[in-house]
Amino acid sequence: MDLPYDCEFFNILLMMLVALLMIALPYPSFTFEKIVLIGSEDTKASSTGRLLNLIYTEVFRRLGYELQYIGYPNERANLMAENGTVDGEIQRAASYEKVSKNLLKVEEPSFSVSVAAYAVTPGIVLDGWESLKDTDYIVEYRRGSKVAASALPTVVKPENLSTSSTVELRLKKLIAGRTDIYIEQEHVVEETLSKFDKAGFDHSTMYQAGIMWTGYSHLYMHKKHAALLPKITEVLKAMKHEGLVEYYKKTAEKAQ
Q1: Are 61 and 93 in contact (CB under 8 A)?
Q2: Residue 171 burial by CB count (10 A; 0-12/13-18/19+): exposed, middle or buried?
C-alpha cells in the first residue's frame, strides 16, 4: 500500500538527518595505553629487531596496549630502562636478572640467541669463553653487551680487551688486522655483512672462529609493571603454540 505523501516526505527527511549526523559525528576512537620498550640500535636495525617488534606488538595488542620500540646505544638504553624512563628492555639474556636492580624478566623467552667469535687470522678455533684463556688475542666486543662484559674479563687480559661503539667500525678494525677477535651476536654480524656486500666492502678474509655462548633472549619489564609479567608469558606461549612466532621469524628474515 502506498504511503501518504507527508509520510514519505517525513521518512526522507529522517534519513537525510541520520546521514548528516553520521558525517558530523566522529567515529568512536579507542586509545590504547602505550608501552615503550628500548633496545640497542644495532639490534633494532636487524632482522632480530624486526622479529622482536612483530612479536611484542602483537603481545601487547592482545593485552590492550600499543607498543613503541626505540633503538638507542646499549648503555643509554640500559640506563633508561633501569630508571623507569621507558617501560622495559626488549631483549636481554636470562642471566641479566642477576645484575639488574629494577627490571624483571619475563620467564617465557622470545627465542634463542648465539654469541660468536670472528677472526681473520687463519687457524683460530674457539669454543666457549674458556677457550680464550691463556691466549694473547686482542679481543673486542660491543660496548653495553652484558653477556660479553661479564665473561670476557675472566678469560682475557685487561690490556688485550676493548669495546667500541658501532658494529661497522669493529668489523672493519678486525678485517684491517687491528684486533684478533671480535665477539658479537650472530644476527648482528650477519646484518652488517649484508650492508658491506651492498656497499662493495670486501670481508672475504673474515670467518666465524666459534660459538662462545648460546642462550635465550628475554623481555625485561620495569618493576612497576610486575603484574603484567605473567600475562605476557601466557600470551607469548599462546602465540608460539599458534605458530605465529615462527611465522614472524620468516617474515622478518624476508624483509632484509
Answers
A1: no
A2: buried
Residue matched to cell numbers 629494577: 102
Return phi, psi of residue 138, to 5°: -85, 115
Q: Is 234 helix (H, G, I), strand (E, B) or coil?
A: helix
Could you tell me which residues come within 8 angstroms of residue 252 by beta carbon, excluding any fewer than 6 positions away? 47, 48, 50, 51, 54
176-179 long-range Cβ contacts below 8 angstroms, 24+ apart: 177/120, 177/121, 178/138, 179/138, 179/139, 179/140
In tens digits, what is the pLDDT along the chain, a chain of 256 residues? 444 445 555 555 555 554 454 444 444 445 679 999 999 887 888 888 999 999 999 999 999 999 999 999 888 898 999 999 999 999 998 989 999 999 999 999 999 989 999 999 999 999 999 999 999 999 999 887 888 999 999 999 999 999 987 888 899 999 999 999 999 988 889 888 988 999 999 999 999 999 999 999 999 999 999 999 999 999 999 999 999 999 999 998 877 6
Q: Are strands 88-93 and 207-222 parallel, antiparallel or unpaired?
A: antiparallel
| Amino acid residing at 21 | L
Length of the chain as a residue count: 256
Q: Which run of H or of E encompasses 232?
A: helix 229-242
3-class DSSP assignment, residue 193:
helix
pTM of the model: 0.71
- DSSP result, 30-77: -PPEEEEEEEEHHHHTSHHHHHHHHHHHHHHHHTTEEEEEEEE-HHHH
Sign, Cα dihedral of 151, 153, 154, 155 = positive
CA gap 112, 110 in Å, rounded: 7
Cβ pair 70, 54 in contact under 8 A: no
